[in-house]
Amino acid sequence: MEITRAVDCTTRRGNDAWFTGTVWQDPIVEAPDPARIRAVRVTFEPGSRTAWHTHPLGQTLHIVSGTGRVQTFGGGVREVHAGDTVWIPPGEKHWHGATPTQGMVHIALHEHLDGKHVDWMEPVSDDDFNAQPG
Taking the model in full, what pTM does it have? Predict the structure, then answer.
């Protein structure tokens, strides 16, 4: 058994190449091999979001507080609220973040495949982000 204390999990600001706006990441766990799980608490300030990206084994998002947005490539923007859980299938291009006026916090859970958790792509355009949820 391994216990990780909160003081061992340093809060870090989201990388500007992967996020638009102010985003904070608080690692929860990155399990050692042979386990593959990684969990992170992510805080999005209003107007912030991820870039487009995929996960080789999919991703689960559990919304802890606030209101956010999620979109898969080619689909409409969906609004999510505290208590919602979102499953994004393996390889599906998507983004997620806050709304233009409300922050959002979620727990992101995903597994690595051969050491890779995520493939980052281009930033989400303001037009895509500001589209009305359907």
Answer: 0.91
